[in-house]
Design goal:
The complex is a heterodimer of chains A (about 290) and B (about 160). Chain A is α+β, with helices and mostly antiparallel strands and about 290 residues long. Chain A has twelve helices and 14 strands. In chain A, the strands form four sheets. In chain A, strands 4-5-10-6-7 form a five-stranded antiparallel β-sheet. In chain A, strands 11-12-13-14 form a four-stranded antiparallel β-sheet, with helices on both faces. Chain A is globular, with a radius of gyration of 19 Å. By secondary structure, chain B is α+β, with helices and mostly antiparallel strands. In chain B, strand 3 and strand 4 form a beta hairpin. The chains are: A alpha+beta (about 290), B alpha+beta (about 160).
């Protein structure tokens, strides 16, 4: 720890240069709710910490005239919840982000950090995938955009190239009649890691589901986009047959671990149960809006 | 490694201090700054005994680097009583014996104050969820929750 450096660049270009120059032992600091725990446990020993929170783009929330949102990678859950519009348009994403840890953790933890920590059980990730959010990353070779589901590579690993930093998320404009929901199963009522997480985003027109995306967490090495479940819902009135088919599609893609939190059989069954409930909540939100 | 110089504001007072790059805000508060009201329970953001406010938002000071305090507003338990007068939550915690060993109490009080500032009329469930990040191994929480609800009721009455 004696040779640790702390940098807090004010521009993205400075951050990218510092991150490249510092080499493999550099770590990005957003909310620090994973990094500082890992440092204390001795599992990560950074040579350089690059605090990105003085970079405006990392901490801003912007709603464009077309209704799309851009949310900086380091925006904390508390700040996202205080935004006057975000939670009205993306209630499922907000509830997923706000499920990360306690009130105190919400003061710091960000969706960008949750994604880069790459836990298969990260709560915000299935909701971001269901939302069809894209990630902007910046590195020595410039900027690129990729779907959220393309970022996780496995537990604790991402597909980001060396030197790349997640800058923020873009949420597409919402057609009328759209909403989303996120549910997770935990054995307690608060402060626990998901046994299964399920995000659903859908659009209804005249009672017919015209678009649906479904994502599952904690049932595979990475969060999964379940395209077959979205297809099963699309074109239906969200009747029992369609929702059952979507639940079956969810169960079919599960490749969970077997551990003290839940057996393979249990996690697989719960994936279908959460799908059904999340569809119902998202649809009720559309009808209530 | 050279120490970093940090200029910050703690409980409304401008403060300058030196820290190592890996030092946490909790270590800086309890060490060079001599503010030992914030406690270290777990050191990993689970227990809330080190709860402070950073620019008005609750955080665990064990998960904040001291260097991050540069240019920001820090609030600690030492700033809760004003001019020798306890905050109503502090008075009520004493009256209703909402503490036993006291290690969790500074964090609980900081979190409870932040709740009542945002929501003057919380339900019991809202109090319990808001305080879920403040672990207490003595009281069983019941007296804490009742003291927060009672304080909220009295503050509402006083505001009328």
């Amino acid at each position: 720890m004696s040779d640790l450096h702390y940098l807090s660049p004010r521009t993205l270009d400075e951050a990218i240069k510092a991150f490249s120059d510092a080499g493999e032992t550099a770590r990005i600091l957003a909310g620090g709710t994973d990094l500082l725990v890992q440092m204390r446990a001795g599992t990560v020993r950074p040579g350089t910490i690059i605090d990105i929170k003085k970079i405006g783009e990392m901490t801003d929330i912007e709603e464009a005239p077309d209704g799309s949102f851009v949310v900086g990678a380091a925006v904390s859950g508390a700040v996202l919840a205080e935004h006057p519009r975000f939670g009205a348009v993306w209630p499922g994403v907000l509830e997923a982000v706000n499920l990360i840890g306690s009130t105190q953790i919400q003061g710091r933890a960000s969706a960008g950090g949750n994604l880069c920590n790459a836990s298969p059980a990260g709560d915000s990730v299935p909701a971001l995938v269901a939302a069809g959010a894209t990630v902007t990353v910046a590195g020595p070779n410039g900027r690129r955009q990729l779907p959220v589901e393309a970022v996780p590579a496995g537990p604790g690993r991402t597909n980001l190239a060396r030197g790349e930093i997640v800058v923020g998320f873009r949420f597409p404009p919402r057609p009328p009649g759209s909403s989303d929901a996120y549910l997770r199963m935990i054995p307690r009522t608060e402060m626990d890691i998901a046994v299964v997480g399920c995000g659903v985003s859908l659009t209804l027109r005249d009672g017919i589901c015209t678009a649906a995306r479904v994502a599952l967490g904690a049932v595979a090495p990475t969060v999964l986009l379940v395209e077959a479940a979205g297809k099963a819902l699309t074109g239906s009135k969200l009747d029992d047959a369609a929702v059952d088919a979507a639940a079956a599609a969810c169960r079919a893609v599960c490749r969970p671990i077997d551990d003290k939190r839940g057996t393979i059989e249990y996690r697989t069954k719960i994936a279908g149960v959460l799908l059904k409930r999340a569809v119902r909540i998202a649809a009720d939100r559309v009808r209530g809006a | 490694m050279a120490k970093l110089q940090v200029s910050t504001t703690i409980n409304g007072e401008p403060v300058e201090f030196l820290c190592s790059p890996g030092e946490t805000m909790l270590d800086a508060l309890r060490g060079p700054l001599g503010l030992t009201g914030s406690k270290e329970g777990c050191g990993s953001g689970d227990c809330g005994a080190c709860t402070i406010t950073l620019d008005g938002r609750l955080v665990c000071s064990c998960l904040v680097l001291a260097a991050e305090a540069e240019g920001r507003q820090i609030g600690t338990i030492e700033g809760m009583a004003k001019g020798g007068h306890l905050h109503p939550l502090q008075t009520k915690f004493l009256e209703m014996a909402a503490l036993q060993c006291g290690i969790c109490t500074p964090g609980v009080l900081m979190a409870a104050r932040a709740l009542l500032e945002r929501n003057p009329d919380p339900t019991e469930e809202e109090v319990r969820f808001w305080l879920a990040g403040n672990l207490c191994r003595c009281t069983g929480y019941d007296k804490i929750v009742r003291a927060v609800l009672e304080t909220a009721a009295e503050l509402r009455e006083a505001a009328q």
